[in-house]
Amino acid sequence: MPILFYNTLTRSKEEFNAIKPNEAGMYTCGPTIYNYAHIGNFRAYMFEDLVRRYLTFRGYKVTHIMNLTDVEDKLIRTCRETGKSLKEITAHYARAFFEDIDTLGIWRADAYPAATDHIPEMVDLIKALREKGHTYEEKGSIYFNLTTFPKYGRLSHMNLEDLKTGASGRVDADEYEAEEARDFALWKAWDEQDGDVYWETELGKGRPGWHIECSAMSMKYLGPHFDIHCGGIDNMFPHHENEIAQSCCATGAPFVNYWLHCAHLMVEGRKMAKSLGNFYTLRDLLAKGLDPLAIRYTLIATHYRQPSNFSFDAVAAASQALRRIRDFRIRLEEIHGEGDELLQECRDCEAEFIANMDDDLNISGALGAVFNFIRDVNRKIDDGGVGSAGAIHVLDLLDQLNQVTGIFAPPVEDTVPREVLDRVAARQQARREKRFAEADAIRDQLLNEGWIIEDTPDGQRVKRV
RNA sequence: GGCGGCAUAGCCAAGUGGUAAGGCAGAGGCCUGCAAAGCCUUUAUACCACGGUUCGAAUCCGUGUGCCGCCUCCA
User: Fold this and answer.
1) Is A59 left (phi over 0), alpha (psi -120 to 50) or beta?
2) Domain shared by A146 and A293, yes or no
């Protein structure tokens, strides 16, 4: 069964065929490290991580490259406003970014090239474009001449005429030092506002435009032609369109086979905006006491091309769903003896999971399959038919699917303090002697302290709330 | 003004022509000394509205309404 991806280039689902068999090169637009990333950003990174994990699960050796934008207008403004150096600021937010993705269980990419470490590569690329006649210079800056690339606009379905007019009047050509308002900068000449953020290069004193870093770095780490490029839908135009123009014109080779874009995140039914008071960084949510795994669940559970509504109710529901999974695993781990091995059930569940995920990463359908499986296995356990081999098979399957989703192995509190166990034993003794009021008092007290006591035929189970 | 997306139960969310997955919450029940967990039953004559195509539409087409995105380096 082939994997289908919705390719923005063709606006249709296409079979994924890798350039090299069983290998996949993947480039994803990373953060501008001038601030803490917000949960909308993390939805995109989570989606990209899912693409990478799923391809890995399906046997591909994936090379995942994510850039860090560490020179750009907003960063320079921050430098000016704070008096700090570019490096000070970017080092701080890069560290925060890595902490955040670790917290969310997003796998680290194979490399995180930073723009400022690749100035020579960008200069070479711009030179190549200049030699081929795709650029022009104005006041020391170098621009890409879009008329030299007739295919421009194919990804976003924008046409040059519409862009030129800018009917709302928002595109004011006077503000551009370019022949056409729609042309974009490859190299920006230094001006006083830039302070000490500049490089002396063959192109003059200045800094790279934003788009060129992704062309230069994807090329360096994945070659001129690679499989997958992902990003948020807002990057489609102009950023990805510009990347295509730069890369194709510079190398003459095809650039990217599959463009995957993820939709935006809404918060409580509204767009996320500081003015609406629903703008959250991951740190904001953790400070409110939300469980990172529940945040992960919430962000991952909606199909990536669907606008997703992040709400506190949804996170609470996710916590409950995770508890269900955790309790299911605890139950399985306690099973001993002979019984059903559940081989067919495991095979069916895995097949259904894969069939859904193969269809453009239909995660909701895939999760539905697993929850149906959990219910069916629970029923069999209730009937007493499941043996330890069956339990192991189910746990193995969950572990495997956890490699894709990261939500099927919630942490279990396995060290219960001696003192708590003593009180559980005391309660059990009271129960045996039918002193139920006393037993219930102990249970209530432990519940207050965050421990749930459950009575099973085989004894007491102690769990974290 | 141009281009694009979305609208499914209280909440989250699959399903893109054949009669509404799943999770959370709610109700009733089984189990339990009582609970918890689990299981069973139940919760959308129905998928924003109105037209149309079709034997048949949440699914296709049209119009409208609402929300969201891009068109200035915001995922």
Assistant:
1) left
2) no
